[in-house]
Design a protein that fits this description.
disordered N terminus; six-stranded mixed β-sheet; 512 residues; globular; 3 domains; 27% strand; alpha/beta; Purple Acid Phosphatase, chain A, domain 2; 5'-nucleotidase,  domain 2
C-alpha cells in the first residue's frame, strides 16, 4: 500500500513538471485559484496626446504621462494588466484633428490598448474614416448597440473575449443614443443607436456563458451607468465615459463595479480585482493623477516618436500668427455652455460679418478652449474651434427663432452644449420659469423679434442639420452653404482686424 502511494505521488510530480514545461500549470491553477488583475482605463481623452496647462498650473495630463506610468507597471513580469478606453479618444486637438484621428490610434497601438468603445466623437470624421481607424487599430472597436438601419448588422464588433492570467474577460460596448444630435447628422446616416439597456440584456447572457468576467465599456455617462448596473444583472464591471466624471473610487451598484476616470488623461483609472475560481472576490483602486510630478515618456519611446512625426507636419501652419488680443478670450467649457463670453462674441461677430446674416446662433459646445492675451496663432484658433464645421445661412421665421432660443436655454443653469451663443440679437430670460417659456424679450438690431418675419440666420452645418436638438434649423430653407470652416473664417477675421477687441457685451441676460 505505501509503495502504491509513493508511485501515485511520483506520477503527480511528473504531471506537474510536464504541465509546467508546456506552460499549462500556471493557467490551470490561476483559473481555479486566485488571480490578481489590474484594469487600467481612460475616457474622454479628446486628443490630449501631450501634457497641457490648466488653470495656470504646470503641465498635467496627456497620454505621454499615462504611457510612462504604464511602462513602469509592465516592468513587473507577473502583472496582469488590461488597458481599456471608454471612448472619445480621436478628436479634440490639432495633432489628431488635422490627421483624422490616426495619431491617437497609433499611440494606443503603441501603448497596448486591449479595446475601446465608440464614443460620439469617434464619428466626427464620418463613417469611412472611422472604419479606416478601426482597420489601423491593433485592438477592437466595440459598440453592441450601433447597427445599420437597413440590415440590422453591427457597425463594429459586438463583443470581445480576452484571457488574463487564466481568467476569461468578456467585453462589450455601448454608445450613446444621442450620438446623431451630438455629432454631425451626416456622420451617422444609415445607422441606428439602439437602447443600451435593452441591448445589454441581450448581450450579457451570451457573454456570461463564455467568460468568467463580463465587462461593459460604456460611453453613456455616469448616471446612465448606474442605471445600467441596477437594471441588467450579470455585468461585473462597467468602465464608463461621456460625462467626464471623476469617480474617486470604484462604486458597487447591484452586482457591478462602476468606474470612470474624468477627462483629458488628467487621471488614469486603476481597478484592482481579485478573482477566485472565476469570480471577483474583492476589488479596490481609484484614480492616479497625471500631475506635474509624473514623468513623461522617454524621448525615444514609441509614443514620443509618433508625436514628433505629427507635430513636425503641424508646426509651420500652427505657428502662423493671425491676430492679437489685449485681453484673455474666455472659451472655458463651463462658461460657454451657460453664458455669453467675449470669446463667443468674437466668434459669432466674425460669422455675422462673413455671412451678412441678420443674426448668428451657434452652439456653445462647439467652442472648446480659451486664448490668453497676446498674439493669436492659427493653432490657437484650431484649438478653440476643432470641429470640421462650415458656415451655413438659413432663413427662419421669428417664432421658430424664439423656439430655438428657448431650446438653447432649456438646460440652464446646467451646462449644455446646445446653449446658444449669438450675434445681432440680445435676449432677457427668467430662469425660474419652466423650460420652453423662459424668454421675456428678444431684440434684433434693437427691435423686438417679429414672429412672422423671415430672418437670415448664420449657423454651422452641424446645427443646420438639426444637431444639438435644433430641429427648427433642419426644416429651414438654406440660403447658402459656404463650405468654409468656422475656424478659417475666424482666422481670416483676426487677420483682417489684426488686433481685436472682443465685445464683452452680455447678450443672453438672466433676470431674477
Amino acid at each position: 500500500m505505501p509503495k502504491k502511494s509513493r508511485l501515485n505521488l511520483s506520477i503527480v510530480f511528473v504531471l506537474i513538471a510536464l504541465l509546467t514545461v508546456f506552460g499549462l500549470y500556471g493557467s490551470a491553477f490561476a483559473a481555479e485559484g486566485t488571480t490578481h488583475i489590474t484594469i487600467l482605463h481612460v475616457n474622454d481623452v479628446h486628443g490630449r496626446m501631450e501634457p497641457f496647462v490648466s488653470d495656470g498650473t504646470d503641465p498635467i495630463g496627456g497620454m505621454t504621462k499615462i504611457a510612462a506610468y504604464i511602462d513602469e507597471l509592465r516592468k513587473d513580469p507577473e502583472a496582469n494588466l488590461l488597458l481599456l478606453s471608454a471612448g472619445d479618444m480621436v478628436h479634440g486637438t490639432n495633432i489628431v484633428n488635422l490627421f483624422s484621428g490616426m495619431p491617437m490610434i497609433e499611440a494606443m497601438n503603441d501603448m497596448g490598448f486591449a479595446a475601446t468603445v465608440l464614443g460620439n466623437h469617434e464619428f466626427n470624421y464620418g463613417q469611412q474614416v472611422l472604419k479606416d481607424l478601426e482597420s489601423a487599430a491593433n485592438f477592437p472597436f466595440l459598440a453592441s448597440n450601433v447597427v445599420y438601419a437597413d440590415s440590422g448588422e453591427l457597425f463594429v464588433e459586438n463583443s470581445f473575449i480576452t484571457e488574463i492570467g487564466g481568467v476569461k474577460i468578456g467585453m462589450f460596448g455601448l454608445s450613446p443614443v444621442e450620438t446623431p444630435i451630438v455629432t454631425h447628422p451626416k456622420n451617422v446616416i444609415g445607422l441606428t443607436f439602439a437602447d443600451p439597456i435593452e441591448t445589454a440584456r441581450a448581450v450579457v447572457p451570451k457573454l456570461r456563458a463564455e467568460a468568467d468576467i463580463v465587462l461593459c465599456l460604456s460611453h453613456l455617462g455616469y448616471d446612465t451607468d448606474l442605471k445600467l448596473a441596477a437594471a441588467v444583472p450579470g455585468i461585473d464591471i462597467i468602465v464608463g465615459g461621456h460625462s467626464h466624471t471623476e469617480v474617486p473610487e470604484p462604486k458597487l451598484v447591484g452586482g457591478a463595479i462602476v468606474v470612470q476616470a474624468g477627462e483629458w488623461a488628467k487621471h488614469l483609472g486603476v481597478l484592482e480585482i481579485e478573482v477566485v475560481d472565476g469570480k471577483i472576490e474583492s476589488f479596490g483602486g481609484g484614480l492616479v493623477a497625471m500631475d506635474a510630478s509624473r514623468p513623461n515618456s522617454a524621448p525615444d519611446s514609441g509614443i514620443e516618436t509618433i508625436i514628433r512625426k505629427y507635430n513636425a507636419a503641424l508646426e509651420d501652419r500652427m505657428a502662423q500668427v493671425v491676430g492679437h488680443t489685449k485681453v484673455a478670450l474666455d472659451g472655458e467649457r463651463a462658461n460657454v455652455r451657460t453664458r455669453t463670453t467675449n470669446m463667443s462674441n468674437l466668434i459669432t461677430d466674425a460669422l455675422r460679418e462673413a455671412s451678412g446674416a441678420d443674426i448668428v446662433i451657434t452652439n456653445g459646445g462647439g467652442i472648446r478652449a480659451s486664448i490668453p492675451a497676446g498674439d493669436i496663432t492659427m493653432g490657437n484658433v484650431y484649438t478653440v474651434l476643432p470641429f470640421d464645421n462650415s458656415l451655413v445661412v438659413i432663413e427662419l421665421s421669428g417664432d421658430k427663432i424664439l423656439a430655438a432660443l428657448e431650446h438653447g436655454l432649456s438646460s440652464y443653469p446646467n451646462q449644455a452644449g446646445s446653449f446658444a451663443q449669438v450675434s445681432g440679437l440680445t435676449l432677457r430670460f427668467d430662469p425660474s420659469k419652466p423650460a420652453g417659456s423662459r424668454i421675456l424679450e428678444v431684440l434684433v438690431a434693437g427691435e423686438p423679434l417679429d414672429p412672422d418675419r423671415l430672418y437670415t440666420v448664420a449657423t454651422n452645418d452641424f446645427m443646420a442639420a438639426g444637431g444639438d436638438g435644433y430641429v427648427w434649423f433642419k426644416e429651414a430653407n438654406i440660403i447658402f452653404d459656404s463650405g468654409e470652416m468656422l475656424r478659417d473664417i475666424v482666422a481670416g477675421y483676426l487677420m483682417e482686424h489684426e488686433s481685436v477687441e472682443a465685445s464683452s457685451e452680455i447678450r443672453i441676460v438672466p433676470v431674477k
